[in-house]
Amino acid sequence: xxxxxxxxxxxxxxxxxxxxxxxxxxxxxxxxxxxxxxxxxxxxxxxxxxxxxxxxxxxxxxxxxxxxxxxxxxxxxxxxxxxxxxxxxxxxxxxxxxxxxxxxxxxxxxxxxxxxxxxxxxxxxxxxxxxxxxxxxxxxxxxxxxxxxxxxxxxxxxxxxxxxxxxxxxxxxxxxxxxxxxxxxxxxxxxxxxxxxxxxxxxxxxxxxxxxxxxxxxxxxxxxxxxxxxxxxxxxxxxxxxxxxxxxxxxxxxxxxxxxxxxxxxxxxxxxxxxxxxxxxxxxxxxxxxxxxxxxxx
Length: 298
Fold this sequence. Notes:
298 residues, alpha+beta, five-stranded antiparallel sheet, two-stranded antiparallel ribbon, 11 helices, 46% helix
């Protein structure tokens, strides 16, 4: 958080700190056999660092499966962390307004150039990392911004998808509804494939599963659960069982890929849950992810 906020005030020091995080992350992921995505418990909160870390984590998930090199992963991680740094110069009343006037939208869109400017001034970003930041709101059909170009770098395509997904689940503007992860993926797949890289989007859906982390589901025995990891099968993730008789930290976790008799019947909208169930499951309005890395065998 401090590094992101300081990038506009002390770009060199903040850039070095962000670059260190990116290099460490890329090194860990490049040297691992596999990375696993998890839902952060009940500690989600506000601040630019949550969206930055979410986009970095999801970008690394895609980058690892695409076989990116350690240097490419480091560039992607660094760009993901700083892609919205320029928003520090955009007034909150514009950032949080879901119905901006044209001049407000034009002002809002300046955050891309500002992010590139602050990143360049830090001296910590390679030309490729700067390009990823510059491209993350462009679209393959030319409808994106700020340049409306159709030729977008691979990192920019990755960041565009994960940025859009996380913003659908955790909107920046007040009053805009938070979508369930399944709904967010559905919107991307049904309505936005003309803008996004279809192969990358299909890979993201495969990696997150049909029921991404953060989804409340009903099982075939009538019990409720919260998806906490995609698991080995897209239809059979790991879930935390709703068990009101015990503390949430002590509740059982089921790997549905290992439970032949258990399966998900449907995803449940959190707002449809009774108040006591919602409070116990605590499906975060703003999802936060973390990853673990499995070492290479042998």
